[in-house]
Amino acid sequence: MSAPKQHKIVLDESEMPTQWYNIVPDLPAPPPPPLHPGTHEPVGPADLAPLFPMDLILQEVSSERYIDIPDEVQDIYRLWRPSPLFRAHRLEKALGTPARIYYKYEGVSPAGSHKPNTAVPQAYYNAKAGVTKITTETGAGQWGTALALACSMFGIECEVWQVGASYDQKPYRRMMIETFGATVHRSPSELTQAGRAYLAADPNHTGSLGIAISEAVEVAASEPETRYALGSVLNHVLMHQTIIGEEALLQFAKIGETPDFIVGCTGGGSNFAGLSFPFLREKLAGTMNPHLRAVEPASCPSLTHGTYAYDFGDAAGMTPLMKMHTLGHDFVPDPIHAGGLRYHGMAPLISHVYELGLMDAVAIGQSECFAAGVQFARTEGIVPAPEPTHALAETVREALRCKESGEEKVILTALCGHGHFDMAAYDAYLGGRMTDEPMSEERFTAALATVPVLSPQAQSGVMFS
Amino acid sequence: MSAPKQHKIVLDESEMPTQWYNIVPDLPAPPPPPLHPGTHEPVGPADLAPLFPMDLILQEVSSERYIDIPDEVQDIYRLWRPSPLFRAHRLEKALGTPARIYYKYEGVSPAGSHKPNTAVPQAYYNAKAGVTKITTETGAGQWGTALALACSMFGIECEVWQVGASYDQKPYRRMMIETFGATVHRSPSELTQAGRAYLAADPNHTGSLGIAISEAVEVAASEPETRYALGSVLNHVLMHQTIIGEEALLQFAKIGETPDFIVGCTGGGSNFAGLSFPFLREKLAGTMNPHLRAVEPASCPSLTHGTYAYDFGDAAGMTPLMKMHTLGHDFVPDPIHAGGLRYHGMAPLISHVYELGLMDAVAIGQSECFAAGVQFARTEGIVPAPEPTHALAETVREALRCKESGEEKVILTALCGHGHFDMAAYDAYLGGRMTDEPMSEERFTAALATVPVLSPQAQSGVMFS
């Protein structure tokens, strides 16, 4: 009898990393700073104080390489972390590939995705600063669930504006958010100026992520002990997610492997950054040489089809301007099932890393992604969320390229969540009702025209820094 | 800074137990045998051959203390096993109890419950015997999901009859079963004689577990290479689940604790048996002395309100007669949210252990259970399935008794699955729409009248053995 195949590389709680990694000081050039939307000058900590507690603002602009994870945050992380690293033996066999496929699985978190990795520290720092309520937006509901969970742990009130269409179509996510004790509003709502304006124009408005952000930001800015939380895009959010990659490094060291190819899906970018940045540190230091690839949906391809420019983070133009790959802040992607990837922009830090040539990206249509998701479920057992099926589709492509070439590549993919609340998408795919229309160039062109035109100095992003 | 609290006691794959435990040879008296429904004589292996492969039949009647888990089954178990044992620090704190509360969490399985522990070996032994299709019934869908997953791993066709009411109300579970490649029929269906008879009487029949069993059994018995699988009740099913308790024993040994009080919910009984039987072995051997308590729903209290007698396993009276605690095979419990606990009988082995005085039982209404489930979600993070909220309700009661008495009891509870597909139940609870009507004595009395009257010799269950 041969030795049994190892499926999971697990770490004990005592092996959990105790610091987050900030990639900024290790990059060959600093990322362009965010600009004030009125003055086009770099925003300072004071500009952000109405929305975020100072500890998070300082993390946002930090140049420290490592930041200690507070004990209180570690204590909650340990409810599910360290998360397992899996070797996908059964998928490899089904593909007939010589590649060795590994996936880091974040669906073991109580919210079912990687989102609690940042929701917990965000709730912690807010609680520490005396904040009594946090507002946020949510689309499909992963982020709202994670923040509701985190707030329940620290006794903070949590108020979530959920995109109307998702609120109507996916009631289970709302129910889960409420089970954790948070309040959910259908957006647009009558509770904010922004919401009332949209409802006045259309009483049956189904909402958008941009509108929901505007509502959550409006309430946070207008109440003294209320702050706002964002689930991706910002530097501190990406940094909190690096615990994923730090754990994966320890897990690979345990089995004496190093990844050749790291692939993750990108919406705002925090999942991909969380897994890949610690490996990018090793690449920059010359200790390993993985190829990094982001996968975006064909209907929202900010890296592969957007422009690199300063743009707003929200649809209404209320946020600071961030230099990023953007499809234009007015861009409304088709209603694909991977709701978590339907964001017009890309995290400034990911955009910067992309511009530096340290990673590449591909865009894939959703039918190919769901095909990979079903194959994964039937071999590895886990039903993936629609978002990471994008990473799985590229994993399958790379594994088949290895089959062709005979290369025994080590592939690492980010399985950032399970699909238990997305079964209707699988039903549509299996029932032959999933559409995969390519976006028209006209829609891209029209949306890109909404990117604000800045002076050349401001656009360079370096004149004030 | 004090040492961090350990939340999870994890085992490496190499530490996974490699044998199931059969409690039968360790019991002070043998359990009464199942009887043929026609002759009232003990059934032999040949009687069961149309429904089950011989390996499973031999396990059903085995007197071996340990049975090796085949390598092929271990290989699939390792996709999620060993499962974690958690210390519920945050729940303890919320309750202010000196008790130390541990929970063994089976929701980490791809199907979200303990059910794959037996679905995988059942599929394996069927595949080994050349069976090409397995039929089964499912209510809420946990068992159907697990068997579909297991069949996909061994390339066996899987056909599931789902209780009509659940099929209509919980489409996500059907979709998950289909994602694993199985076929789902709404029961009663036009595909079987039994189904057609019920539909002729009522074209809109919403079905019952008993009817779905009849349909699945009818198809299995009529096709040469098709067999049937049951998700609880039978000896071999309970034995497959003992891997839960064997792991927990290893995990307690790692931290130098022994449980004083073990509590689990009981529907058919496999979850409770799986966790508690290995500890009961230790109790019988005198190496530890845990108190075992089963929790059943107030609306389906077979142990606390049923009679101990030979009765049918299904509503239509097609199965062998089993000596068990039963409410009568015609008993239709109220439609509570814990669908997995709505079974008229109790596993013969659990019933026997109960009669031997080795465990006790309580019945709890669902509102108290959901209150405990919400408190658990908001402290420990995991949203429990409705079934294990029954165990949690009794865990909370015991922890509060310890608060009163000052006892530092070690409580171990079976958290047999997550509630991701049961959010509507939480919504009903949080929205104040959950009813908790006590069952009328008239209904109990009427149902008990359906228990067949056997001769005293047959009822004693020992005349032929």
Descriptive overview:
The structure is a homodimer of 465-residue chains. Chain A is α/β, with parallel strands linked by helices. The first copy, chain A, has a domain at 9-15 and 69-112 and 236-438: Rossmann fold, CATH 3.40.50. Helices cover 41% and strands 16% of the residues of chain A. In chain A, the strands form four sheets. A seven-stranded mixed sheet of chain A has the order 1-4-5-15-10-11-14, sandwiched between helices. In chain A, strands 8-7-6-9 form a four-stranded parallel sheet, with helices on both faces. A two-stranded antiparallel sheet of chain A has the order 2-3. In chain A, α16 (366-380) packs across α17 (386-405). The longest helix of chain A is centred in the last third of the chain and has 20 residues, at 386-405. Chain A is globular, with a radius of gyration of 21 Å. Chain A starts with 7 loop residues before the first strand and ends in a 5-residue tail after the last helix. The mean pLDDT of chain A is 94. Chains A and B meet through α3, α6, α8, α16 and α18 of A and α3, α6, α8, α15 and α17 of B.
Q: Uncertain regions of chain A: pLDDT < 50 for 5+ in a row?
A: none
Radius of gyration of CA atoms of chain A, rounded to a whole number: 21 Å
The CATH level-2 architecture of the domain at 9-15 and 69-112 and 236-438 in chain A is identified as 3-Layer(aba) Sandwich
Average pLDDT level of chain A:
94
Quickly name the level 1 CATH class of the domain at 9-15 and 69-112 and 236-438 in chain A.
Answer: Alpha Beta
Please summarize the sheet with the most strands of chain A. Answer: 7 strands, mixed
Pair with the most extensive interface?
A: A-B, 48 and 48 residues
Class from secondary-structure proportions of chain A: alpha/beta
Q: Give the CA-CA distance, first to last residue of chain A.
A: 64 Å
The CATH topology of the domain at 9-15 and 69-112 and 236-438 in chain A: Rossmann fold
Coarse shape of chain A? globular
Number of helices of chain A: 20
- What spatial order of strands do you see in the largest sheet of chain A? 1-4-5-15-10-11-14
**Beta-strand share of residues of chain A:** 15-25%
Oligomer: homodimer
- Helix proportion of residues of chain A, in percent? 40-55%
